[in-house]
């Protein structure tokens, strides 16, 4: 499905990463990226249609977030996109800016509100990402964007998840989402990069809609409680047995209360 005109090569490096394993950490990895025309055209049409059709829902949610949590309504965070290049991902806020006596953000389960929990449980907090799709920063379907600090921790195989634009939904999200391990998540991500097609994207979208309506594959209590942070040590028990939640909520406390949501 890909022509040579759809392919480019980019490199990603992190000069602050540890020097202990240059092949795995801190080294520049060249990623051959794929951006076929059919996929970009589909993204533009689908995102524009969804934004128009869902505009009353989006307006209502923005009003509820404003009334419940105050400003800002939109949560913004830098995430790695195509080729690992950073972009600003948009989501509806779901947490209060609550801090302890020392100014540190309270744990996620103390900052999330009942409304915020419902927002996440329904996945409606993801709707602003349709703007990211129109901008060309995300795709409707693709590996979910994780955290910038994970880039130097990836193996060469794991880094291939950045060969395509990150998605609002993805193959991992319709095959377990919060319940799968990090190795399983990366396996689904790289499988998508190798096999993506118009038919596969339509199947993922259909299954996503079904799971959102049935509220399956997501546990709101787990989201609020926080998930294991990826450390790069796939073979160790902490990452192999813990859920690989694409939202990695617990990492939010590392970046301050403004980063209330890491999905």
What does this protein structure show overall?
This protein is α+β, with helices and mostly antiparallel strands and 263 residues long. The protein has helices spanning 37-53, 55-69, 108-111, 114-121, 129-135, 156-159, 182-195, 198-214, 220-225, 237-240, and strands at 7-12, 29-34, 74-80, 86-92, 139-141, 167-169. It has one domain (36-254). A hairpin with a 5-residue loop joins strand 3 (74-80) and strand 4 (86-92). The longest helix has 17 residues, at 37-53. It is globular. It starts with 6 loop residues before the first strand and ends in a 23-residue tail after the last helix.
Uncertain stretches of 5 or more adjacent residues: 1-5, 13-28, 218-226, 235-263
Q: How much helix is in the residues? A: 25-40%
Tell me the major beta sheet: 2 strands, antiparallel
| Number of continuous helical runs | 10
Based on CA inertia axes, which overall geometry fits? Answer: globular
* Total number of beta strands: 6
Largest sheet strand order: 1-2
Amino- and carboxy-terminal Cα gap: 30 Å
* String of helices and strands: EEHHEEHHHEHEHHHH
Features of this protein?
263 residues; alpha+beta; two-stranded antiparallel sheet; 10 helices; 37% helix; 12% strand
Question: Can you give me a brief rundown of this structure?
Answer:
The protein is α+β, with helices and mostly antiparallel strands.
List the helices and strands and how they pair.
Elements (H helix, E strand, L loop, with lengths): L6 E6 L16 E6 L2 H17 L1 H15 L4 E7 L5 E7 L15 H4 L2 H8 L7 H7 L3 E3 L14 H4 L7 E3 L12 H14 L2 H17 L5 H6 L11 H4 L23
Parallel strand pairs: 5-6
Antiparallel strand pairs: 1-2, 3-4
Helix pairs in contact: 1-5
């Amino acid at each position: 499905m890909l022509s040579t005109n759809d392919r480019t090569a980019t490199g990603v490096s992190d000069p602050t990463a540890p020097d202990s394993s240059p092949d795995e950490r801190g080294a520049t990895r060249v990623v051959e990226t794929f951006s076929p025309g059919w996929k970009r055209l589909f993204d533009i049409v689908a995102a524009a249609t969804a934004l128009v059709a869902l505009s009353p829902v989006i307006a209502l949610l923005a009003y509820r977030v404003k009334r419940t949590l105050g400003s800002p309504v939109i949560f913004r965070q830098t995430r790695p996109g195509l080729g690992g290049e950073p972009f600003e991902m948009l989501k509806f806020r779901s947490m209060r800016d609550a801090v302890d006596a020392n100014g540190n953000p309270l744990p996620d389960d103390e900052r999330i509100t009942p409304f915020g929990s419902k927002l996440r449980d329904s996945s409606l907090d993801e709707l602003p990402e349709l703007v990211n799709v129109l901008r060309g920063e995300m795709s409707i379907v693709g590996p979910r964007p994780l955290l910038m600090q994970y880039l130097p921790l990836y193996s060469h195989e794991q880094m291939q998840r950045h060969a395509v634009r990150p998605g609002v939904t993805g193959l991992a999200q319709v095959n377990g989402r919060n319940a799968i391990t990090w190795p399983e998540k990366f396996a689904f991500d790289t499988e998508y990069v190798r096999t993506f097609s118009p038919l596969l994207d339509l199947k993922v979208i259909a299954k996503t809609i079904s799971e959102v309506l049935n509220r399956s594959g997501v546990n709101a209590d787990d989201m609020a409680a926080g998930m294991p942070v990826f450390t790069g040590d796939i073979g160790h028990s902490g990452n192999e047995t813990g859920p690989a939640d694409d939202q990695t909520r617990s990492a939010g406390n590392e970046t301050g209360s403004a980063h209330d949501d890491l999905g």
